[in-house]
Design brief:
Rossmann fold, single chain
Length: 316
């Protein structure tokens, strides 16, 4: 791979994919709809000679075609808001796949684990797709669209991430906790503090995603992007206090508390049905990756949280 385009390049995942590609000497086009955010991304990379950008709307497949016509691989990192998923996710999928198919390109789709529902078996790529939530069912439809036989020329793969964190993270469940602690404010933690959960450090995820994308035989399949180890909220907060020095209270939000907040906040209202993930967790197996790609990068939580919180404190 010598050239690539990253759709949704200014988002949390998009930014690390851009960085990983540039680090490998690959020419990158950052695609997004915000001029100011794309300018900030260019500045963040000191106007790297291999980085350019194109303005466009992810729902306009012709804009994607125009921007991606000279690249080898399309990385689809754009997403839709929780409250817009029902109306917009399949439109997004149709747009990016129509563009990839028209151009005959490889396309890497970044997605999550909602398609699985409750964990009932080893969390490998063959885990049953039995979602019990509205968002999970929509994500199954999204996967079916990506791998639809109607696309004759595109070659797609899906990478699935658990919850994540990192210097570029923006919309993860852990984000409000880390942002509050970085600002030395009272903050909240979504879920209970005792359940060990899986989180992937975004730079590690980007490395794995690009490694998968480099292999021709990776396409047409789902791929897990597992985290380092399991860690509880209590352990995360302990490390974060060491980094930030913050001693302000952290308030765990239960399902009932989020349901109450959801009466006034549409985003929190949408989180309620996903709270099963904070109670039971879902552990992704990395066996397929290890067997076909190589060792899984595992940045220790202490180092990852230090880098994340240092960035947040600098922004604050």
């Amino acid at each position: 791979m010598k050239t690539a385009i990253v759709l949704g390049a200014t988002g949390g995942t998009g930014q690390v994919i851009v960085s990983e590609l540039l680090g490998r000497g690959i020419e990158v086009i950052a695609f997004g709809r915000s001029q100011s955010k794309l300018n900030a991304l260019m500045a963040e990379h000191d106007y790297h000679p291999k980085l350019t950008y194109k303005l466009g709307d992810i729902f306009d497949y012709q804009a994607i075609i125009k921007a991606a016509e000279d690249v080898e691989v399309i990385f689809q990192c754009a997403n839709v808001k929780y409250q817009e998923m029902k109306d917009k996710l399949l439109l997004l999928g149709e747009s990016v796949m129509k563009a990839a198919d028209t151009l005959g390109k490889k396309i890497v789709i970044v997605d999550g684990i909602y398609v699985y529902g409750h964990q009932v078996a080893k969390g490998d790529e063959s885990h049953p797709h039995q979602p019990h939530t509205k968002k999970g069912k929509i994500r199954v439809e999204f996967e079916q669209l990506i791998f639809s036989p109607k696309w004759k020329s595109a070659k797609a793969l899906i990478v699935r991430l658990p919850d994540y964190y990192g210097p570029t993270s923006q919309n993860s469940y852990l984000q409000p906790t880390l942002e509050g602690m970085a600002a030395n404010k009272i903050s909240f933690f979504i879920g209970n503090l005792k359940t060990p959960r899986e989180y992937v450090y975004l730079p590690d995820a980007a490395r794995m995603i690009v490694n998968i994308a480099m292999k021709d035989d990776s396409y047409g399949e789902n791929w897990n992007i597992p985290g380092a180890e399991l860690i509880s909220g209590k352990e995360i907060i302990k490390i974060a206090r060491q980094v930030t020095g913050s001693r302000k209270p952290i308030i765990p939000l239960t399902k009932n508390a989020i349901r109450l907040i959801g009466l006034f906040d549409v985003f929190m209202r949408e989180i309620v049905e996903m709270m099963y993930l904070t109670k039971d967790g879902f552990i992704l197996s990395g066996e397929k990756y290890k067997k076909r790609i190589g060792p899984i990068p595992k940045t220790p939580f202490k180092k990852g949280l230090e880098e994340t919180l240092t960035r947040l404190m600098r922004i604050d």
